[in-house]
Structure formats: C-alpha cells, structure tokens
Amino acid sequence: xxxxxxxxxxxxxxxxxxxxxxxxxxxxxxxxxxxxxxxxxxxxxxxxxxxxxxxxxxxxxxxxxxxxxxxxxxxxxxxxxxxxxxxxxxxxxxxxxxxxxxxxxxxxxxxxxxxxxxxxxxxxxxxxxxxxxxx
Length: 135
Fold this sequence. Notes:
four-stranded antiparallel beta sheet, flat
C-alpha cells in the first residue's frame, strides 16, 4: 500500500424475493436508497474501515427494504467531491436532492443526467455510478 492511497469497497445483495437489500461498506461513501412510494431518500451508511492490511477488523451488514420502484445508488467519492468553480463540492446533500428530483426517470437517464451534472465541475477523481431499481 502506498502512502496516502487506500481502497474502499461496497457490497450490496438484492434479494428480489424478500424485497430487501443487504449492504456493507469498507470506507466507501454511503449508498443512497430512494423510496419511490414515500419519496424518502435514505443513506445506507453501514461502513467499516477501508480495505488494507489491518488485523482484527470486522465489517457488519445493514438490511433495508427494497420495494417496487425503489432505487439504490452506489457511487464513488469522485461524484460528491466534484467541485464548483468556487471550490464548493457537489456534496452528499446535493446528491440526495438530485436523486429525489429524478425519482421518476429511467435508470439510464438518471445516470446520464447525474454524470452531465457533475462532469461540468472540476474533478480530481473517478466518476462511477451504479443504479439498481426494483421493477
């Protein structure tokens, strides 16, 4: 491992039959869960230490309902760290607001709109997004 560099990870298991998500993270930004029926935007923030040569590190899972129309958003920190010209980051609050405003868009359109929104800002990191929707 190089100084100042580390690896984060996220794992999400979607159980279609049980209408549930099991989620765990290792230093990764929290997943966003958009609840279609209520419009709620939740953070799945079950997170442990980033990956590395650590002894006695444990990671735990969180369980959340995943109902018809709900959307799960996984993303890298480059999304929330993209900055405006004044140096202000896009941030988690804006991402949550964006996800709520786009609740009725198709997943591909959501990803395109998000990438277009953050790519107009300065980035120093990768931009990666994964969207899963319960159909």
